[in-house]
Sequence to fold (129 residues):
Amino acid sequence: MPEKSSLLDKEILNRVTDNELSCSAAFEIAGKLHIPVSDIGAAADRLKVRLVKCQLGLFGYKPDKKIVKAAETVSSELKAAISNSLEDGKLSCIKAWEIASKLKVERFFVSCACETLKIKIRECQLGAF
Fold:
């Protein structure tokens, strides 16, 4: 296990800029090493590396931390997909990604739709929230 951990640490540290690791880089590392993305988040914590640039726009942007804004309109198809995926009135990060993939829209667009619908996104796949 220490070998795998040191390989993971090396991959993370190779992608770090200003002590920050982007969400997309974290997912690339997970894919490359064939490990759960939550392991990347845990290792980043251990290495005291900040996770930034959430692909849903929820954290890691300067100066306001998040960049997600309410969408002007939400299609009935997207609204239904979100509504059908809610757990306790909230949408998980992974479900937001699945909806984006299924409907062939940007992940950020799903997040903006959730803002419009006043739906909170929970359970970041990296463990950031």
